[in-house]
């Protein structure tokens, strides 16, 4: 007897447009709106052609946040009912974003679903997110996310096998009979192993082991911030590379990240910053919820700006075995990221690409063999070993440089500035601003900037005067496929190369977040050790005046300064 199709009637939602990094909403939005998660999961699976599904494997994993396990059970049930053949899931659902990217590539899966809202807070009142990655291991490009969005807006039903339940804790294969399809299998895998294996092939583990546990070892402090990277740090840095167990803290993933923002910056990783100030540790790092971001600190809390971090790795790249094998194909940074990387590219005659914000733009360049190393000012650093930024990779890259150069973080950074000059950089974030006010501020600023008289205008603050050379809304033409991405951020570039950039965040879940970025280059060796906030104060002042940010949003100060 034929059983009924496992379809459930639903009504479409109009707000399931994936942002910079998947669909991010408050947990309550996923929980309280009927079929909200089911609809979106069905919309993702619907972009995989029915004919492909019976041979398709999807990788599934997340950062351990609240609602992740519920979402994984739904993915299992919906994937089965839609004829997906095979799922590979991290044990207990745990898999960092870089590890998912690694596993997709390794097993040649058609894609993966990552359950994370990255660095946003978790718990019942926090955020949840669902993100789709494609077979390259990278975030789905806009063509696909638009397709998912279109499907979600018209969805009338989804398919589900509600009875089907997997045990996420048990490593191994579980097989289920699903009507009309081949048996459906779910394979639970160790969350760390494939990723660890990949890192062993990238870095010189013997040299890292010597650095971390040899007779002249350094002391490190790694803060997983209760996010997903804890088990990776424990297994790779402590067990394998021999760093003492107590050098890694907050390593058990928690559904609410211990009540904190799992965001590795000077504000939300203040605990690490303060501990580092004590001088007991030579190297410190923190990671975000899903393990793709990193913050690097030296002894006494010496801060390495992420824009500098990627530049330092670039300048020392030939010490890393992976790049000795692959060569250096090119470098890239997102537009708001400081020009520190450009200086290295120029000096070492490497190709440099400037892309819009978001990791997905790097993927095309990597797939085309044009890009080896890239970074964003937002604590993202990575390479073409996978198609996501990679927090632990960045930390091992830094440790490799320490091992080779036998210098401290601060010495390496200062040598770098001496050699290449320094790009002073700061970012101001204004979080949860009223959306209408934020949109109006940006629109008005654009109008001001596009006035014919704006270019050539001089702005002064204190004893500094800057003359506008370029004013535009950044647009990017992908050199690989020719696709054009417009409206990627308002740029005011002055005649000395200093830049003021405004853009609205694409990853927030409530209200709007305004980001203000300032970048200014200094070559004078007398000035390169100054405090960035002091050096950049005139440009900040000019940015606030031109945009009237304070008047238009009612905000007298930013939520976070980096
Ligand atoms: C932010 C960062 C961006 C990063 C993204 C995902 O996006 O600014 O560099 O790629 O998170 O981690 P935004 O909120 O600015 O759109
Ligand atoms: Zn993240």
General description of the model:
By secondary structure, the chain is an alpha/beta fold. It is built from 19 helices and 27 strands. It has 3 domains: 7-191, Alpha-D-Glucose-1,6-Bisphosphate, subunit A, domain 3 (Alpha-D-Glucose-1,6-Bisphosphate, Chain A, domain 3, 3-Layer(aba) Sandwich); 195-420, 3-Layer(aba) Sandwich (Alpha-D-Glucose-1,6-Bisphosphate, Chain A, domain 3); 422-561, TATA-Binding Protein, CATH 3.30.310.50. It is globular and about 75 Å long. The chain starts with 6 loop residues before the first strand and ends with a strand.
Record the SSE blueprint:
Blueprint: E1 7-9, E2 23-26, H1 27-32, H2 36-46, H3 50-53, E3 57-62, H4 68-81, E4 86-94, H5 97-107, E5 111-115, E6 127-134, H6 142-154, E7 157-159, E8 172-176, E9 184-189, H7 193-202, H8 205-213, E10 220-223, H9 230-240, E11 248-249, H10 270-277, E12 283-287, E13 294-298, E14 303-304, H11 306-315, H12 321-326, E15 331-334, H13 340-347, E16 352-355, H14 360-367, E17 373-376, E18 380-383, H15 391-405, H16 409-420, E19 422-433, H17 435-450, E20 458-461, E21 464-473, E22 476-477, E23 484-485, E24 490-494, E25 499-504, E26 512-522, H18 532-547, H19 549-553, E27 560-561
Parallel strand pairs: 3-4, 3-5, 4-9, 10-11, 10-12, 15-16, 15-17
Antiparallel strand pairs: 1-7, 2-6, 5-6, 8-9, 12-13, 13-14, 17-18, 19-26, 19-27, 20-21, 21-24, 22-23, 24-25, 25-26
Bound molecules: 1-O-phosphono-alpha-D-glucopyranose and zinc ion (ZN).
